[in-house]
Amino acid sequence: MYVADVINHLESIAPASLQESYDNSGLLVGQKDTPVSGVLVCLDCIESTVVEAIEKKCNLIVAHHPIVFSGLKRFNNENYVQRTVQLAIKYDIAIYAIHTNLDNVYENGVNAKIAEQLGLINTKILAPKSGDLVKLVCYCPLANEEHIKEVLFEAGAGHISKYSECSFTTEGIGTFKPGVGTNPVLGKVGTRHAEKEVKIEVILTKRDMNAAITALKKAHSYEEIGYEIYPTLNETSYEGSGMVGELPAAMSPVEFLTFLKLTMNLVVIKHTIWSKEIRKVAVCGGAGQFLMSYAKACNADAYVTSDFKYHEYFDAENKLMICDIGHYESEKYTIDLLFDILSKKFTTFAVLKTEVNTNPVNYFT
């Protein structure tokens, strides 16, 4: 197995195209054609993480946060970013980051892991992405229908939330007039022909569009293929930021805070005042203030996230309880998530969870 194999598996779950514009996910150090001797998963890749990888004979580190966000102009051990990168290069350790693309998926994503940890049910994306879906419409003979559907589904088309192989078909009559130089099997040149056809419609993401069209052209029985691509404004129910769900049973604010502290293994929770029962809970791993309006709009009783600034707590406006549990604390179970994803897929090398606590924030209690 090679570094590329690990990357391909991770990006089949959280495609690189889903990362935000400011992000720097991907292979940051190393080469894709390097054989993997072991993988170390972590939240942050810093110097101590690289040292741990060396000691455990892991030559690939899979981290949630990228060690490099912007361009490095010097490599002189001046700061922890440079020292980490230089140490990894020196010992041939590859570093791969899977950040906001892992935040933006419904299944096996950062927020799904938080929701799972809290036991939330009836979960859905808090802020779904829109404009990322297109509709592919194509036409084929009746006898070719099932084969065309099969190759389109294999190329990623027809996925709607938790459902797959979704399509709509209608039968009709297609007409054509062969021109000079066309396949004589099609009929006499200059004579219009009519044939029973089926119209197939499927939804797919923009990133799967080229693969679907390529598969369609390869599988189709026609010399020239009729198809159309339509942009949509549909929101995707399986891609986007944050998550919202319900507790199995309502709790009082104190009960919920106690439950949250115990379940997420917290030292402290910064929160606003809330006097009603808590049943609906919104979550966002990492800095989640940007989703505050969505949490309020869906009528969440509590919003579990991190990194609120002082004045941003006023934005609760007595419409929900903000629960700021800390950045590291909100995302630390991502280590377990990545470990599960990789260990279930790869058995020819060791997949290990870091034992280094990389949280730069400490609490004096």
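That was protein one. Protein two is written in the same sequence-then-structure order:
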Amino acid sequence: MRKLLLAAAALMLAQPALAMTLPADLAKAAHDYDQAQIKGDKAELRRLLADDSVRVDLGGRVQDKASFIADFTDSTMEPFTVQEPQEKVLGDVALLGGLVDAKGVSGGQAYSARIRFMDVWAKRDGRWQVVFTQATRAPVS
């Protein structure tokens, strides 16, 4: 997995930014994933996250699928728009990321954060699933 991520990242950096149209099934999966996070939809998150998915959160903690889902179903998130989208499809692997201004409530406390993220998607058994996510705080402009 680590080699796959490094290779994908190297390809992403080596290629000039091109306007890309995502395959329809990937675009739908990405939209559904964003909506599942906003709505805290446990069933959709289970469907869209691979069983072996890993997330590195804003605090640098590594989460498995269960703890990721727990975080998003125990909090609320306002709708967001992905700014500065980064999209690369490399066969059955895709890198989708960008910048979001995230707002919501977690643990009874309001939060607001500018986040740069990258989701690594893999097409397995004919369907796209998130296998890795990295989220990093970004400076507020």
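Confidence is low (pLDDT under 50) at residues 2-19. Keep this in mind for the problem set.
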